[in-house]
Amino acid sequence: MLPKPMIRHLRLLGSNTNRATLLRKFKSGNNKFSSIEEFNKNKTKYSYGYNFDSLKELDDKTQPKSEPSKSRSNEDTIDINEAIENDPRLTKLKPGSHEYRETLHQLHQEFISKQKNQQKRYEFNERMRGVFYGVAALVGVVSIHQIFMNYESIKNRLLMNYTYKDFNDEVGDAPKKNVKSSKHLLEKLERELSDENITQLKDSMVTPGVYQFGDNTKIPIRIPAFDGMFLKDAFIERGHIIAITDKGKVVEWKRGQHAVTEVKLPFLVDKITATSDYVYYLTSQGEVAYTPRKSAAGFLPMLKRNWLGLLKSQTFNKLDVKNVVQFSSGINHLSFLTKQGQIFVVNSSKNPKNMGQFGPQYSPFDKKEIPVNKPIDMTLLNNEIVKEGNLKRIVTRKFTDIASGDYFNIAADVNDSVWTWGDNTFGQCGDSNTTQIEPIPRKVFDKKDYKRICRNVFGKGAKDTNFEVTRVLASKETSYIILKYNDQNAILSLGNGLNGQLGGGRYLHVCSYPEIIKSLIGLKEFDEETNAVVNIGIKDAIPGRDHMFIVLDNRGSKDVFALGSNQYGQFGNGKRIKACKPTRLPRLLEPQDGENKLDLAKSINDMNTQRLQLLDNHKIGKRNVEQAIAAGEDSSMIYYKVK
């Protein structure tokens, strides 16, 4: 706080300042003029430069006024004050009054609000106009691009009427036919079955032989060259059959031949398979021999000395392996299983397409050269590390089944686990990550997985310990697993199902999670021996390239179902329609069927009472025989086999 003497000094200073101001204001009146004329006489003139007499002229030159734009709206030229003062609400009020000023303020606010709304509307219209111009420009650019890219097509369409005005391309509608009528069935049968085919028919219950269908033959036709023959195994493709007789001899037949040709080999053969370059034979001694299908590059025949000691080349060669019990082939590789439960893979091509089917030793990432017809031991697959306490040791893993697709493999071990490796483009290896290469074998399914997959089929109370893997199968790009649970069977399928070969009722391009062929589960029949209703199991499944046959294990003759592609008539049902779930097939033709073709045509379409049933435990002479099916590339066959 200031001291009192200081406060008094400030007060005096303030009073002196006010007095000086009043005196200054009073004295300033002496400088005023009495009239405007006197002011004009005494005013000082200033020079603003050359040719400028006044400040207004200088402003007009330096800052010329622009003419008002003709495009300005009428609202811009309105006098705001005049518009407000002429408002009817002000005419009744006294100027300068409180009500007048308040109403004037309200009118001013309303005017400002109206101006803002008009400004917003104007801005919105301008934006919409810009958007419209942009869309129009985009449409124009796209239209010009399409016209440029499709100029020839547009020109042809515009000139079509001028160019082809004299050309009449009207085609009448095809006559509607009743495809189920007897007449239509008879016409269809006559196109498929010639008189020569009818004369070649033999009694299927008495005379063994071979029935071939597919390869554009939609009805099973008997091949006279195989009449009276019993076979162990057969390989079939378009117009070509290689078969193993019951005596272990190899015979070959090609379309147009009236007799089979024997392939002379100095050993007996039990099984046969083929890749794109070689035919492989499993001998009765557990060895694997092979012959070239054509002039295979790099084929080295086996050399043998005759009784004179001279080397003589053979028409075959053998793999360096023994005790083989099973094998399967893809496009350019062979996989086989030994008696000890070990798996080996063989490359059969000089320039193979490597999709990982040869295992990690010849991974496609390494770009190694793969030897031809040299067994490759799947070391990581055939062995496993077992921990016992603090110690670890390597033990042998044993397998029970092996199958090969085009570029992948699937195997089952003694613990009913399933292993896969190779091409997984369609999920056929059971991996949801459908990469193209899986060179390292991996376990994809075990008993716990079967319980989870089949929980809706066998019930949630199913025990995983009761599941067994009876077989694994492979076609072109599809894998199959046949499971057994107590006295029932189930088939799991995964991979490419575009032709319906998965059998689950859907056409799927990629399927890495197993589909269940549910229509074959729960089938029952009455067993006269036990006088009870029993479940019907699955005896066998035979995959072709894009189709598969399933043989049921019912009492007596065995029912047969087919699924997958039927483009070339490989079902043998007189049609070319593919099936995504198991479908029944018509019975084989008998000699008496040729007497009445109309009845034959009707029986082919009757799948209930005239369905295909394979013979089993049937006596022909003194032999107990059965009928078996072989499936290949777009072709199929039925043959007789001694049990």
TrEMBL record:
Q: Give the residue spans that cross the bilayer.
A: 130-148
Q: Which GO terms describe its biological process?
A: mitochondrial respiratory chain complex III assembly
Q: Does the keyword tRNA-binding apply?
A: no
Q: GO CC: one term?
A: mitochondrial inner membrane
Q: In which residue ranges is the amino acid composition biased (Basic and acidic residues)?
A: 57-75
What lineage is this protein's organism placed in? Eukaryota, Fungi, Dikarya, Ascomycota, Saccharomycotina
Protein's name according to its UniProt entry: Regulator of chromosome condensation (RCC1) repeat family protein
* InterPro entries linked to this entry: MitoProcess-Associated, RCC1/BLIP-II
Species in which this protein is naturally found: Candida parapsilosis (Yeast)
Q: Where is this region: Disordered?
A: 57-79
Which UniProt keyword terms apply here? Membrane, Transmembrane, Transmembrane helix
> What Gene3D superfamilies does the record tag this protein with?
Regulator of chromosome condensation 1/beta-lactamase-inhibitor protein II
